[in-house]
Amino acid sequence: MAFRKEPPFTHGKAGKTAIVLVNLGTPDAPTTKAVRSYLKQFLSDPRVVEIPRALWWLILHGVILPFRSSKSAHKYASIWSNEGSPLKVHTSKQAILLRGYLGQRGHQVQVAYAMRYGSPSIPEVLEQLKADGCERILVLPAYPQYSATTTASIYDAVFAHYAQVRNVPELRFIKHYHDHEAYIQALKESVLAYWAMHGTPDKLIMSFHGVPKRTLLLGDPYHCECQKTARLLAQQLGLGPEQYQLTFQSRFGKAEWLQPYTAPTLQKLAKQGVGRVDVMCPGFTSDCLETLEEIAIEAKQDFLRAGGKEFHFIACLNQAPAWIAGMASLAEEHLIGWPTTESEREELKQQAEASRQQAMRLGASQ
């Protein structure tokens, strides 16, 4: 096996620390060709679709890609901004702000962002960080709730890349933060700020991305972590059980997924006479197709057509100051023991120089 070429090694130079914020991904453009390429990569991941490969290959290439790409491209076009894909724009800005916030706290760390599918890819970002001299990498998934379909797939991509690398850096992964105080606080501030401007609803809907029910039965903790996030946020908002509801969106295929489903729930509430619902998506830290199109457009239509009076969409955390501070706190907890401040880096540099001198003396004496 041939390993990737290593950059020149410099003795006595303290390596850098980096954080990689990883989100799901997005097409490069809202076109059928770009969406088809993106969907092919995304839906070819065995973590995402656990159907026997040969059968799934026929379904993917014979049915889904030929017929779904154009439809999905139209949906992407409806939410595409002048800056590009909302998910990519928000993730990029989060990375910039996180680096600045950590820098204000005295941490000298690089912060980059990568996409599990699409660009910038995990391998190309990790390669650039190696070229920049980063020897410690903290991977921060943009998914608060762990799922094998999302977080574990990031692990797969990182490990697959480093299986081709001779000099592997020190690695740390953040598995989940569904119940982290800073994350819940950021959600709370987001909701309260919206309500301060627009009043309160009859019911708050917390819509999470769905996964097949069989994943829960096979041991995936995602369902339980979504439940805990919703419960903690409701407690912080002072909501009783009748004032909020957790639902799951984005069902795909004929198999049973986690329930209750978002769209049917909204229709049912409207028919029951619930006048106003506010919908938020706590499992998404950046607004994207699933929030801006599926919820803010499609779900709104479902509710109003069923007789509802008011539908409000509460945006994702995006670049909210409380969330940037929350990510910084989360990162600091996982950076413990790694030199990120000037004094820590200077100490590491001195230790490296001392080791180099010692090695030279030992070599001279032999």
The computed structural class is alpha/beta
- On the 0 to 100 scale, the average pLDDT is 94
* Helical residues, percent: 40-55%
Overall number of domains? 2
Question: How many distinct beta strands?
Answer: 8
Low-confidence stretches: none
| Strands ordered across the widest β-sheet | 2-1-3-4
Distance linking N and C termini:
35 Å
Along the chain, the helix and strand elements come as EHHHEHEHEHEHHEHEHHEHH
Number of helices: 13
Determine the strand fraction and express it as a percent band.
5-15%
Main β sheet profile? 4 strands, parallel
Global geometry: globular
Could you say what the CATH architecture of the largest domain is? 3-Layer(aba) Sandwich
- CATH C-level name of the largest domain: Alpha Beta
Estimated radius of gyration: 23 Å
* CATH topology label of the largest domain: Rossmann fold
Binding site for Fe(2+): 209, 290
Function: Catalyzes the ferrous insertion into protoporphyrin IX.
Pfam family, one: Ferrochelatase
EC number: 4.98.1.1
What does this structure look like?
By secondary structure, this protein is an alpha/beta fold. It is built from 13 helices and 8 strands. The strands form 2 sheets. It has a 4-stranded parallel beta sheet with strand order 2-1-3-4, with helices on both faces. It folds into 2 domains: 183 residues, Rossmann fold (3-Layer(aba) Sandwich), CATH 3.40.50; 133 residues, Rossmann fold (3-Layer(aba) Sandwich), CATH 3.40.50. α3 packs across α12, α6 packs antiparallel against α12 and α9 packs parallel to α11. The longest helix has 27 residues. InterPro entries: Ferrochelatase, Ferrochelatase_AS, Ferrochelatase_C, Ferrochelatase_N. Its EC number is 4.98.1.1.
